[in-house]
């Protein structure tokens, strides 16, 4: 385990929604962060078959390019009735073929696949969001933090907050989707809290406890 002795890092992402959420979470910790997108770093090929592998690819690419530590997130939706799909290919399901992503289309793809499986009732629509954070240093050292939150795939989508698949994910124990929650409600965590709700906040909680706290 390696402690992070700087508050200047690169957020290894080109996803605007993800960059915003990461900045929301690290802002209260006193970080100065710029993103791989702002630095015009090339988007690395995510050739891994696990969230951990892809998180490492992104974090290491930015850390080595910037010469300072980089923090990445690889995350996705895992649907039980679809044998874990879309999983690490969650963003790929939103690809339109012209370089853009359409998450309304992606959510419809999941709904269609569930209908084809006969998964019409909530009990057959169990799923989870997974987030793996990777903190990488220019010398190649990495630390990984995994957060998961259980829930149900709902249809039709509800809410316009958040990003990606948030409007179809209703976390266990709640009557609203991530798309209907404010950022504060969705994460359910800030430094010093013992509990966290979102997958990304749960991963961040581990990151803080492991690499920042004495």
TrEMBL record:
Sites where the protein binds substrate: 13-18, 75, 163-166, 186, 199-200
Cofactor binding comment, as recorded: Binds 1 Mg(2+) ion per subunit.
Binding site for Mg(2+): 45, 74
Reaction catalyzed: ITP + H2O = IMP + diphosphate + H(+); XTP + H2O = XMP + diphosphate + H(+); dITP + H2O = dIMP + diphosphate + H(+)
Class in the EC hierarchy, top level: hydrolase
Catalytic residues (positions): 74
Entry cofactors: Mg(2+)
Known EC number: 3.6.1.66
Taxonomic superkingdom: Bacteria
InterPro entries (alphabetical): dITP/XTP_pyrophosphatase (IPR020922), ITPase-like_fam (IPR029001), RdgB/HAM1 (IPR002637)
Alphabetized UniProt keyword annotations: Hydrolase, Magnesium, Metal-binding, Nucleotide metabolism, Nucleotide-binding
Database matches in Pfam families: Ham1p_like
GO MF annotation, one: ITP diphosphatase activity
Quaternary structure note: Homodimer.
Function: Pyrophosphatase that catalyzes the hydrolysis of nucleoside triphosphates to their monophosphate derivatives, with a high preference for the non-canonical purine nucleotides XTP (xanthosine triphosphate), dITP (deoxyinosine triphosphate) and ITP. Seems to function as a house-cleaning enzyme that removes non-canonical purine nucleotides from the nucleotide pool, thus preventing their incorporation into DNA/RNA and avoiding chromosomal lesions.
Family classification: Belongs to the HAM1 NTPase family.
UniProt xrefs under PANTHER family: INOSINE TRIPHOSPHATE PYROPHOSPHATASE (PTHR11067:SF9), INOSINE TRIPHOSPHATE PYROPHOSPHATASE/HAM1 PROTEIN (PTHR11067)
Identification of the protein by name: dITP/XTP pyrophosphatase
Organism of this sequence: Rhizobium aquaticum
Organismal lineage: Bacteria, Pseudomonadati, Pseudomonadota, Alphaproteobacteria, Hyphomicrobiales
């Amino acid at each position: 385990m390696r402690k992070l002795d700087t508050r200047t890092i690169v957020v290894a992402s080109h996803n605007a929604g993800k960059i915003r959420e990461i900045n929301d979470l690290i802002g209260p910790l006193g970080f100065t962060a710029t993103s791989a997108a702002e630095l015009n770093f090339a988007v690395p090929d995510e050739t891994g078959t696990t969230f951990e592998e892809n998180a490492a690819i992104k974090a290491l690419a930015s850390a080595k390019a910037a010469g300072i530590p980089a923090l990445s997130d690889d995350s996705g939706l895992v649907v039980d009735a679809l044998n874990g799909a879309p999983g690490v290919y969650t963003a790929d399901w939103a690809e339109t073929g012209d370089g853009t992503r359409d998450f309304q289309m992606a959510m419809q793809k999941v709904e269609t696949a569930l209908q084809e499986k006969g998964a019409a009732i909530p009990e057959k629509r169990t799923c989870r969001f997974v987030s793996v954070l990777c903190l990488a240093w220019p010398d190649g050292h990495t630390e990984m933090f995994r957060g998961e939150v259980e829930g149900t795939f709902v249809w039709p989508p509800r809410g316009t907050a958040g990003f990606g698949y948030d409007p179809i994910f209703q976390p266990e124990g709640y009557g609203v989707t991530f798309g209907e929650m404010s950022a504060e409600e969705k994460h359910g965590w800030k430094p010093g809290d013992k509990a966290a709700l979102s997958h990304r906040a749960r991963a961040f909680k581990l990151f803080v406890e492991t690499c920042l706290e004495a």
